[in-house]
Design a protein that fits this description.
By secondary structure, this protein is mainly α. It is about 65% helix and about 0% strand. The chain has one helix spanning about 10-45. The longest helix has about 35 residues, at about 10-45. The protein is rod-shaped and about 65 Å long.
Length: about 55
């Protein structure tokens, strides 16, 4: 029965935006963590040759 539904047209869109925002935030956090690990690995393995190169 459609009369029982009291959702306004804006509510489903807000839920979709929230889900999309959460997914994007999660993906960005994963990417940031990967870049931090890569940078740490590069810095830890960086060697300057004798004489300054």
């Amino acid at each position: 029965m459609k009369s029982d539904q009291k959702n306004t047209p804006g509510q489903p869109r807000e839920a979709v935006k929230s889900t999309w925002k959460n997914r994007l935030t999660h993906w960005l956090e994963i990417a940031r963590n990967a870049l931090v690990r890569a940078e740490k690995k590069i810095i830890d393995n960086f060697r300057v040759p004798p004489g300054g190169g």
